[in-house]
Structures are given as C-alpha cells and as structure tokens.
Write a structure and sequence with these properties.
By secondary structure, this protein is mostly helical. The protein is built from 18 helices and no strands. The radius of gyration is 21 Å and the shape is globular.
Length: 453
C-alpha cells in the first residue's frame, strides 16, 4: 500500500486549526469532570505537580509518536500503520494496532455520548431553576429520575450522537475545523466566566486556589502517583487513533514538537481552570471536596442551587461540559469514518451515518445499564462497567504501549528524525529516549496496576 503525500480528506487550513482540533479531542469530560475530583481525592497541589511531571515524561512523547505516525501515513490509523510497516520492512500485522484504536474509539463513544447526553439534560434543568434551594437528597433524586428513565436517557443519547455525526459528515475543514473554531473559544469563554463567578466567593476562592496549587506531599500515596500517571496518559486522548487521524491532516511544515506542547498546555490549563471554578463553590457550600465521580451531577448542583445567580451559572457550567464532550466525541468517530471512506469508497456523509448508527446501537447497552438492565451483569459488572473497564484499563494503555514500541523501536531513527525535524539535536535524542524507555515503562506500570485493582 503506497503512502500518499496528503490525506484524501484534505488538511487543516492552519496550524492553529490543528491545535484547536487536537485540544478539542484532548479536552473532554476528563478535564472538567475527572481531573477536579481525582485532585480532590489525592490531596490537591502535590498531586497536580506529579501529574504535570507524568504528562511531560509519558503523555507528550506518546502524543508526538501518534501525530508522527498519522502525518507520515496520511491515512486512517489502520492504513497508516499498514503503510509504515511496509516502509520499515516489518510485519504488516501492525495494522491491527490501528484496529485496536479505531475499535476503542467507537466503544468509548458509545457510552461517552450517554454521559454527554446527561450533561445536555442538566443544561436545561439548571437554566430552568430546578436546583434552586435543592438539598443533597433532592439532587440525588433528580439525577436518579433521569438515569432510571430509559426513554429520557435514550433521547438525550440520541440527540448527542446526531449532532456529533452531523459535524463529522461535513468533512475536515467544513465540519471538524468549523466546529472546534466555535467550540473551543466558547468553552474557554464560559470557563473564564465561571472562574470569575467563583472568585466572588471571597475567602473560599483563596481556599480553592491554595488547595489546587499548594503542594503537601504528605498527602501523596503510591496510588496517587499511579492515578496521576494514568490520567496524564488518558487526558490527551491517546491510544484510540483520534490524535493519529488528526495528525494525518497536519501540514508537513508544522512542527510536531511545538504543536504537541501547545495542545498539552491548553489541555492542562483547562483542567486547572476547571478546578479553580469548582473548588471554591464546593468549599463555599461546605460540601465534600473528595466526592468522587458524583461531584458533577450530585455535589455541584447543590452548590449552584444555593448561590445567587446559580441557575444561570449552573446552566453555563453544564453547557461547558457539553461543549467539551462534543469536541472530544467528534474525534472519537473520525478514525472509523476515515476508514470507511478510504477502504469502502463510501461518501463521508454515508460513513458518518453508519458510524453514528453503530455507536448509537452500542450505546443502548450503557443506557439500559442504568435502568431496565441494571441487574444484568457480566463477571459481576453491568454492560457499562464492562465497556469502561475494557477500554480504559486494557485497550487504551495497550494501544499507547504499542505505539511507543512501534515508533521507538520498529521505525528507524532516520524515519522518525526526518518526520519530527527537531532542532537542536539533543531535543530529538531526549524524545527518543523517553519514547523507547520511560513512556513504555510508565504505561506498563499503570496497566499492571489497573489490572491488579
């Protein structure tokens, strides 16, 4: 299979467009939902420092490797890895790594859209004042009423899949690029507005800042470090083919190193800003900072419900969640759509419809896991729990590990050096050392820890 000079899907109109798109892929529910609560569970500032170190040593090298493969292959992940395997005169079985990422993206999208649909429902609930003066039991009751109703949950899931598929159907510049050029600035504007709102809590805002940025290493544990390593890897949307396929649309003149650092900086800034917006509100209302996954749908509605202007700003917060989820969801199905267009010669619109229907159908497993099929388990897990475990604990770390091995040990040094074109030379040597030794070791540790737990 010959390696094309440019993707048949076109390319980003500018480097800035790629940064926005890749940042949109990386910025998702993990930044605004997961990062604040795992920071709360693991002691605050010290955890943030460990997370940033892991981001530099593990996340950035693997992201550069994914972009490198995508841009050099100029095709969907399956075809790119197939072409590069031929180019490197190694087994063509490396194409199955592309299949692993493509499949992971579809499976993740199937349940991601269900939670994004819940966030979409909460936009309207907040703006309509449902949570004004709500108690803890009341907030829990409202959430349970939503997820226990299969029809309502299915409706929101369907809406989110449709709006995601519409964007992808319109192509790289007409759909993906236009969407992220709107979504990312809107996301940042809402986030800054929410930080400003949190700043009005006075001493509680300072308390939130201290919690987020003051490093107390006595609160760190071995599990905290492993959690930081895992999140540093997953927050950049690695191992699922999304960054790889976005890299295939990147102009040859763009610096992969600079693009990667810009994406990581933006991704981390969003996560920290989310913490700055959330923690002061939690402290101001005497709520639990380590509330875990329930922080978003159970704890924050109580905070917004007891603050002046809470209905409006609560609605903005969940709109922020929807925008973040939407920008990530687009990238989750793009690899599958690209594969259908390139290998089955169908139109992009038809490929988007097919992919949307597949993810929607698989999403029924998650929808019903909360209600009519909640008693149905596989190895003691609901269908959603099983999908979440399979993707997060097995498929993504395995995909990231294999990417590191392929680029660091299968691709020749000459190939990676020419594609990255990093100056001065010591920067390339540092990256190559990280991708060959440090990143794989870190991923293996996280992988084994997850399997053990």
């Amino acid at each position: 299979m010959a390696r094309p000079l440019q993707s048949i899907h076109g390319q980003w109109s500018s480097r800035w467009a790629f940064v926005l798109a890749a940042t949109g892929s990386a910025v998702g529910l993990g930044n605004i939902w997961k990062f604040p609560y795992i920071t709360g569970e693991n002691g605050g500032g010290a955890f943030v420092l460990v997370y940033l170190a892991c981001l530099v040593l593990i996340g950035l090298p693997v992201m550069m490797a994914e972009i490198l493969v995508g841009r050099r292959g100029r095709q969907n992940p399956v075809n790119s890895l197939h072409s590069l395997a031929i180019e490197e005169k190694t087994t063509q079985d490396w194409q199955y790594l592309g299949w692993l990422g493509l499949t992971a993206g579809i499976l993740i999208m199937s349940y991601y859209s269900v939670f994004a649909g819940q966030a979409l429902a909460y936009v309207f609930r907040n703006f309509s004042g449902v949570f004004e003066g709500v108690t803890a039991d009341g907030a829990t009751s409202i959430y349970n009423a939503l997820v226990s109703d299969p029809e309502r949950l299915l409706a929101w899931h369907t809406i989110f899949v449709i709006i995601t598929s519409i964007v992808v159907a319109r192509g790289v510049q007409g759909g993906l690029e236009k969407a992220v050029k709107f979504l990312m600035p809107a996301l940042l504007a809402i986030l800054f507005l929410l930080v400003g709102y949190a700043a009005n809590t006075g001493i509680y805002f300072q308390q939130g800042i201290d919690f987020l940025f003051h490093a107390d290493f006595s609160k760190l544990s071995g599990d905290s470090v492993l959690t930081a390593m895992g999140h540093a890897f997953f927050t950049l949307s690695l191992g699922m083919g999304a960054i790889m396929v976005y890299g295939s649309y990147l102009p040859k003149s763009a610096s992969i190193l600079k693009m990667t650092f810009a994406i990581a900086f933006a991704d981390t800034a969003v996560a920290l800003l989310a913490g700055m917006a959330i923690f002061p509100l939690v402290f101001a209302n005497g709520l639990d900072i380590d509330a875990g996954p329930g922080l978003i749908f159970h704890t924050l509605p109580i905070a917004f419900g007891h603050m002046q202007g809470g209905a409006f700003f609560g609605g903005l917060f969940f709109l922020l969640l929807v925008f973040a989820a939407w920008s990530s969801a687009i990238s989750l199905i793009e690899p599958a759509v690209a594969w259908l267009v390139e290998n089955k010669e169908v139109s992009r619109r038809r490929a988007s419809v097919i992919t949307g229907l597949v993810t929607w159908s698989l999403g029924l497993l998650t929808v019903f896991s909360f209600n009519i099929a909640s008693e149905w388990t596989v190895f003691g897990n609901t269908f959603f729990d099983l999908l979440d475990y399979l993707t997060a604990n097995i498929m993504l770390p395995l995909g990231g590990l294999l990417i590191a091995i392929f680029v660091g040990r299968i691709m020749s040094q000459d190939s990676s050096e020419k594609e990255l074109n990093i100056k001065p030379q010591y920067l390339y040597s540092t990256w190559r050392f990280l991708i060959r030794y440090i990143a794989p070791a870190g991923i293996i540790i996280v992988f084994l820890n997850m399997l053990w737990n």
